[in-house]
Amino acid sequence: MIKKTVNLLLLFFVCAITRVIAQQNEVLIYHPIQTDKGGNIVPWYNADPATAYDHDLQIVWDFWFNMRRDPNGLPYYMDHQVWNKTMDDPRGIGGDQFMMAMSSWRLYYAYTGNENVKDNLYFLAEYYLTHGMSPANCKWPDIPFPYNTFIYSGIYDGDMRSGKDVAQPDKAGSFGQELIHAYKIKDDPLFLYAAIKIANTLAAKVTTGTELHSPLPFKVNVFTGKTALMQDDGLVKSKDTACYTSNLTPTLQLFYDLIELNKGNVASYKIASDKILAWLKKYPIKNNRWGPFFEDVGEWSQTQINAMTCARYMMEHPQYFPEWKTQVKSIINWVHTSFNNDKWKKYGVIVTNEQSVYPVPGESHTARQGADELLYGSLTGDTSYYNNSVRQLNWATYAVDFDGKNCFPFDEPWLTDGYGDYVRHYLRAMATYPVLAPVEDHILSTTSVIQQADYKGHFHKYYSVDFTEVDSNKVRLYYRTFDKVGTEEIKLTTKPTAVLLNDKPLKETNDGEGYAWIALEKGGGVLWVRRKNGNKVILTVD
Questions:
Q1: Cα–Cα distance between 247 and 295 in angstroms, integer?
Q2: pLDDT tens per residue, range 19-66
Q3: Has this prediction a pTM greater than 0.90?
Q4: How far apart are CA 532 and CA 514, in angstroms?
Q5: Which residues contact 403 (CB under 8 A, 6 or more apart)?
Q6: If DSSP codes are grouped into helix, strand and coil, which group holds residue 475?
């Protein structure tokens, strides 16, 4: 009895000490900060980033997918930009809310094979196209409005700050680009035709641009054709500030995609893309005047998202930017000078503020900076960014609560920053450094678009008709792409016994069509599949 009492007292003492230590840990958003032996921040859920990142992505998606519906019957995220547990937030959607989500869901579908992810992407595209486009007979026809001025109308008809009838052309370009992706996944010509209409309007409006006026304005009234009013930035006055944004690489890629597909008014897309590319090189890439992006800011503001979106585009399309290495490094250094936040420096991490008007660290912006700097280091061999980049991704995991809601630090759970503009940065980081992905089977990247991804145990539900020459019990992963030429990067637990392209075995080789396998020290490995003439791939295991 005495021994049992002593043991109970000892257990009570240990538990009490543990609670005291936990209470002493600084809480970051939702969780006490966890560190490694060196005192550097690690993710809240698990010290292994691969395990932690994958976990957070799952619960973030689950929270989005299971979000409650509004009184008008729509999912909450179709009406609001900020999550509120107890009541409906009075603000409408974020200007880029749907296209950011479509961007992330395209990557997350390939990573998981979850059909609900793909269906949600289609739903966002289809609903927006039928409830948010400018009339065909106005001066800026067939482009999306970024806001629902009547919250529960189910209709998008204006801009949060500038009011009804105002659109943001850069967001139209982003939507057009995501519609191209949706078309390539579903093979639905309606998505393609809508993207062509957006591209036709934007191409007709693109100008040469100047130092103070971008080739497309930031905000415009679709009926009058006039730019919307904003506060001045000290260089230009009043409405002229709304003539500038540098978030034009999505529009640029929209034009390039349609040129490659040979669809729409190709000649006009070539002229417009040349103007945008020349302007980017002449002005923002040189002078770092990146300008506004966010719909809820009514004045001039420098933004990290514009700068790093362009930087990533340059890294992914070096053929257009011969000096990309030095130019991207210059942009990264400018972001550090302008937006570094050292509040958590004692945990070995410098994080990233959102913009000059609102100098607050953001989970999506910090994750973006981490993922983009990882890509730069991988491409150039400059490893000086690596540690802080991973720690930025670690830091941003603390924004995710146990139930999957995702809160902007010192602010609210924004449905842009916490979802569409969050998930994709972790998936991009995994693609750059597969060691950051869990030792499981996941498609990490493709030079094409994944139309179907059926992982072991699920493939038979959808496309068993494609398994004409293979024992379905041996199929580990089946996927289908839009293009017949391309390359996929796949994290796997073990090396497959065979890789088939359109039912024909591929050779293991480092050159030409075939596949390559690289084992990783921490388990599993990476499979590279290079396709020259086929779009259906099967991985088998005996």
A1: 13
A2: 334 446 899 999 999 999 999 999 999 999 999 999 999 999 999 999
A3: yes
A4: 9
A5: 59, 63
A6: strand
